[in-house]
Design a protein that fits this description.
Blueprint (H helix, E strand, L loop, with lengths): L3 H5 L2 E5 L6 H14 L3 E4 L4 H7 L6 E6 L8 H14 L3 E5 L2 H5 L3 H17 L3 E5 L7 H13 L4 E3 L11 H11 L4 E5 L5 H10 L3 E4 L2 H5 L9
Helix pairs in contact: 4-6, 6-7, 7-8
Length: 226
């Protein structure tokens, strides 16, 4: 039986939409502090603000890297990671280069992840690799998990929330089966209610990416999934 506090402690609250303002980031940070949310996931330019508002809080600052398409050069992702860490991020959610993956350039994809992992681990931070599972077959999801593991990442994550779909039980099942004993798994995108959140935790996820965190924690139905 999960309590509100149990679920909140697994949530990465997403503040990633392009129209969100500095006040929106501040309000989200205060909500995370008050509700015991695990992490606040913000755009790179918002990291320092989130750090300042969350100072003294248990809520961690997470920055997205290569968001939302993952098509940046690896050098760009490495620099973006370094700057986010300097600004106060302790977790990085990076988007895998899906186009390169689907082109069969798996070594390129692995190197892309490795440079971000190197920056993060040197700063005692963790990396979650966003696979954008809605664009992949089950076999491709498994292969992407293997690449992320070989690159040294800490988590695999389903979705940015900005593509054609979010987390699904089927995608999570593949991820758990493939790397669940060696990596952690984050479901994100499309988690709109309490039952959905708990179902992913029961499947084996240790993090949930949610945009309407208070609605979900309070048992409501969110109008959007991220």
């Amino acid at each position: 039986m999960y309590t509100q506090a149990d679920v909140a402690a697994t949530v990465d609250h997403a503040v990633l939409k392009p129209e969100l303002t500095a006040n929106d980031v501040r309000d989200a940070a205060e909500m995370c502090r008050a509700r015991g949310v695990c992490a606040l996931c913000v755009r790179p330019s918002d990291v320092a603000l989130a750090r300042d508002v969350l100072a003294g809080s248990a809520t961690k600052v997470c920055a997205v890297i290569g968001f939302p398409h993952g098509a940046n050069r690896k050098e760009t992702k490495a620099l973006e990671a370094r700057l986010a860490l300097e600004d106060g991020a302790v977790e990085l959610d990076m988007v895998m280069n899906v186009g390169q993956f689907l082109s069969g350039h798996h070594e390129v994809v692995q190197q892309d992840i490795e440079v971000v992992v190197a920056e993060a681990h040197a700063a005692n931070a963790i990396v979650k690799v966003i696979l954008e599972t809605c664009l992949l077959t089950k076999e491709q999801i498994a292969e992407a998990c293997h690449i992320a593991r070989r690159a040294g990442a800490d988590f695999v994550k389903t979705s940015t929330g900005f593509s054609s779909g979010g987390a699904t039980p089927e995608a999570i099942a593949v991820m758990i089966e493939t790397v669940g004993t060696s990596m952690q798994v984050k479901a994100s995108g499309g988690i709109r209610d309490w039952a959905g959140a708990v179902a992913y935790l029961e499947q084996g996820c240790t993090r949930l990416g949610i945009g309407s965190t208070e609605t979900v924690l309070d048992g409501g139905l969110a109008s959007s999934g991220y």
